[in-house]
């Protein structure tokens, strides 16, 4: 049996909160390893990084998600009873519901709604001195997602409902007030969604049968039962909230366009480079740092022992920047994909493995489509200035965001 290096601290949670995204990769470098043990959130945890480790992590025979996610995340980001915590057949059935909502027609329709929202927003931005891009795009995506899902929102409730989605995302890795805001937001949002589900079931509101609100409301679980309204609410929020979260990637895309003006010019003119540009944004600015699972039964891997029930954490952040997969990994270089190939385990900003089988994010196609649209809008449908502001990224913050949230000014629509 091979010894797994042990992080020197008796309890490393404080270090995790202090260092954030780089916590696992810093220690992998310190101990010259892809695997180490640490005590995190009062529990012995095996931390893993890199492509080979990701392949292991997504082996369903060896790991379960049940009871793996820290309680703080379940109460803010995930919600109780959602697909993230299911295993086996129950997961497969629930996951199919999500996969069926991600057809090409869905991607096209969501993008179409987003385009309309961008156009309307850009017109209104002309009258403003400055716009904070991150929150403005959150609003665009929220409205587009609600239209796509068939979720009715009163015009005067849009800002509040959208702010709730934003709080759940931003509070996920936070403590103190950020955490409590996220919990409150989840409570309010779940109540809103659960009431809608009851209205759909009681035929008190009309919604098209192919809309997500209808499909989730009438979805039957592995036992053939309807989901509890609270669980259906969690799953509906699993569609709205992350679509709002894509605004973070659009903000980072704007930052990349600003820092690499040559790309702004290239992307304004043709679509060829859009995909690699967007992938590089996702690789470098992935803002979901780690994932957790539990060992099903004792096993050995490369001589290391994994004890039954033990918690394991996979480093998404560090794997996306692993120099064995990516040359000069900290540099923004969309052209890298001409030579360096993405696979299901070396590029994992939204998880790895297979979408239908593993827990990999079913929203990757929505994400890619909406970032692309954001880049098109920023380069082709408007002009703007980037005033002096603090664009630094605090890598210890989970989730990352440029300090100023990317402020733009002198906005003008173009044809
Ligand atoms: C799962 C990230 C967008 C719905 C995940 C996972 C990550 C992730 C890291 C966990 C993978 C795992 O456990 O192995 C992101 C990021 C997004 C995004 C960074 C961009 C902002 C979306 C969108 C949707 C979505 C647009 C739906 C419209 C889900 C669902 C799961 C999930 C339902 C749970 C899947 C499962 O447990 O099987 N996402 N996601 N996500 N994502 Fe996303």
TrEMBL record:
The keyword Nuclease does not apply. It comes from the Bacteria. It holds the Pfam family p450. SUPFAM superfamilies: Cytochrome P450. InterPro entries: Cyt_P450 (IPR001128), Cyt_P450_sf (IPR036396), Cytochrome_P450_3A (IPR050705). The keyword Iron-sulfur does not apply. One of its GO terms (molecular function) is monooxygenase activity. Keywords: Heme, Iron, Metal-binding, Oxidoreductase. Gene3D superfamilies: Cytochrome P450 (1.10.630.10). Belongs to the cytochrome P450 family. PANTHER family: CYTOCHROME P450 FAMILY 3 (PTHR24302), FATTY-ACID PEROXYGENASE (PTHR24302:SF15). This is Fatty-acid peroxygenase.
